[in-house]
């Protein structure tokens, strides 16, 4: 079993289809909704954590794509300008999932994209505005 996080962008016409139900029923994928932005009749975006076999997750993602859902791995949507970071640690104070931590040996900021839930609290916390998250 593996876990993968995806940002899904749904077109307006997909609102009446039980797509997540099919992922569970047909592909044996566990779904954890981490964030949702839904605009009925317009579009929707979900941040999902999918858990299942690698093969089933791939099949499930292809199923969504066939239904005109744009599926993108989360790490392609988070932009952190690490090279400009001064390692002040402000962002670690607001990062409740622990994606941003200070290395206790080097005192350098470490960012684990796999733990990020796109809460966006790091954006205002960073004095240099080094975080950008494209969720739409």
List the helices and strands and how they pair.
Layout: E1 2-10, H1 19-27, E2 30-39, E3 43-52, H2 54-66, E4 70-73, E5 78-80, H3 90-94, E6 100-102, E7 109-111, H4 122-125, E8 131-133
Antiparallel strand pairs: 1-3, 1-4, 2-3, 5-8, 6-7
Helix pairs in contact: 1-2
3D architecture notes:
Helix 1 (19-27) runs antiparallel to helix 2 (54-66). The longest helix has 13 residues, at 54-66. The protein is 23% helix and 33% strand. It has 136 residues and is α+β, with helices and mostly antiparallel strands.
Care to give the gist of this entry?
With 136 residues, the protein is α+β, with helices and mostly antiparallel strands. 23% of the residues lie in helices and 33% in strands.
Key words describing this protein structure:
8 strands, four-stranded antiparallel β-sheet, single chain, alpha+beta, Alpha-Beta Plaits, two-stranded antiparallel ribbon, elongated, 4 helices, 136 residues, 33% strand, 2 domains
């Amino acid at each position: 079993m593996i876990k993968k996080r995806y940002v899904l962008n749904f077109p307006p016409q997909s609102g009446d289809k039980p797509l997540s139900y099919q992922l569970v029923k047909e592909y044996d994928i566990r779904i954890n909704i981490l964030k949702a932005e839904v605009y009925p009749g317009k579009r929707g975006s979900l941040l999902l954590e999918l858990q299942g076999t690698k093969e089933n997750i791939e099949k499930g993602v292809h199923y969504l794509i066939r239904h005109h859902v744009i599926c993108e791995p989360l790490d392609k949507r988070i932009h952190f300008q690490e090279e400009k970071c001064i390692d002040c640690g402000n962002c670690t104070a607001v990062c409740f999932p622990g994606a941003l931590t200070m290395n206790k040996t080097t005192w350098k900021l470490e960012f684990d994209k796999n733990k990020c839930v796109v809460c966006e609290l790091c954006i205002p916390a960073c004095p240099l505005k080094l975080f950008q998250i494209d969720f739409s």
